[in-house]
Amino acid sequence: MKFLCVFFLLITISVFSQEDSFSVENFSNINNLDSVANVYRKNLKKSVSTPQLISYSKILKQLGKIDSSYYYLNRAKASILKSNNKDSVLYFYTLKAELARFDANRYLMDKTLLESEKFLKSNSKYKFNSEVFVYYLNRKAAFFNEFHDGNKDTLDLILNLTNKVLKLEHLVKDKSIIAYSLNEKAKFYESHGSLKESLKLYYEALEYAKKNKIDIATADIARNIARYHQAYFHDIKSSVEFLEKAYDASLKTKNMTQLYTNSRSLAEMYEILEEYENAYKYQKLETKYLNNIYNLRTSNLLKSNEYNLRFKEQKEIIKNKTTEAENSKRYLALLLVIVFLIVLGLFTMYFYNLKIKRSNKALKELSNENKFLLSEANHRINNNLQLVIILIADQLKKLNNEQQSSLKNLLSKVDSIATLHRHLYKNTNKETINVKDYLKEILINFNELLNEKNIKLDYKISTIYLNTDTAMYFGLLLTELIINSMKHAFGNQKQKQISFLLTEENGLVDFKYSDNGTNSKNVDIKPKLVDKICRQLKVKLYINRTDGFLFTFTKQV
User: Fold this and answer.
1) Span 43-78, pLDDT tens digits
2) Ramachandran assignment for 541, one of left (phi > 0), alpha (psi -120 to 50 degrees), beta (any other)
């Protein structure tokens, strides 16, 4: 069966390579996407067409290779936008916005939606292909459903869009569009508080996806039903039942993002049920899929850097060859005009060549230095981005609609990393940073939150220069400690105070943080994230809860 599927795709690809026609392809029912991706990859090395690039981009998205999916979609952009095929242009905008939504890039998604709306208005009299137009309406409903923020007009627009799609079901070949439209309509009723109607639609969407063997939609919808049972009925066993269905469906598609999300949720649910053997099983799978996603992104980044470096080297070679050619012409013209001054001409040419060699040597040294700095910057940015991903994943496990403060906490942590990059950008020396300026800016960023909670902040920070990695962990540690104090330390007490002291003597940095929170007295407190950061810093922490909360350590620098 696998051989027949790949053979069919080979025939399809050969047809696509001969004509640049456009069709809305559905890969939801194909379970051996790795083999399909390999076929497309080999064919693209022989010949390239716009439909092939689009199809390969969609397959890569389903496999969780987001960076590569962006790359091949953007390769198709130029030929699509220049074509007279308006259906192709609308389809491209829809795919780009959907990929941005999948990648949680709201800025790019909003920008692409505005471009598509402008395009539709300028072609209001054109009758678009029903398949393409229905897919656009479906994805637009999904975009608004994800970011409606409770706005009534937006919610009404979602309902109108999904109803339009469902009325056009008889024109739609890709049945995943209908399954997802039922899912979006269920989300609409959920947002309105119509739980009975919402759950009914979720079940209808799931049955529709299963009936049409749409595995990727089955996984998404089953996960929504699992969330529903947990959130509204506190029925963990039913939630596990549907999460297992979602996981089985995602196994068929090999969608890394779905596999990671579903295994993580199953590990959490089995832990609540105290079925630790199953919890451990899915926790191991969660780690496996997360590593796969991380390795894919790292591999793509390394390839991108390698290609960029090769491009610059080729550009430099062409530039040098062009310069040499121009110089040769100049020398020849000079020799023809002043033949009688050949001796003087030879001397001039020798001097000029010597000057060029010196200039090229200086340019080469500067180029090597810039390459080193660029490589180092890429390395640090990559490490910091991975930290951001870990922090977001850690916080999202705890986040629900009523816990907006968790998002603020997360943003504070991300901001501490952003602050570090700002200081690195300003510094001439990229190896070390003045930790006083860096930590002071972090504390200033907390002023508004502290004032809202009537918390007084005292701090004293010495001028200390630390390497950027150590400074980053200091910033994250200070951020986490302040957040913990604001959330847990203070009860109804009137006097609320946080103190921070950072000093250095004889190469030993003394980090001291405390609060006078009554809730902290004589309570066994050992924050997990704080403990992890201290391990990264390789320091032994000390906590005292006699008169509130005191945290301190020393580090050799």
Assistant:
1) 777 777 888 888 888 878 777 788 888 888 888 887
2) beta
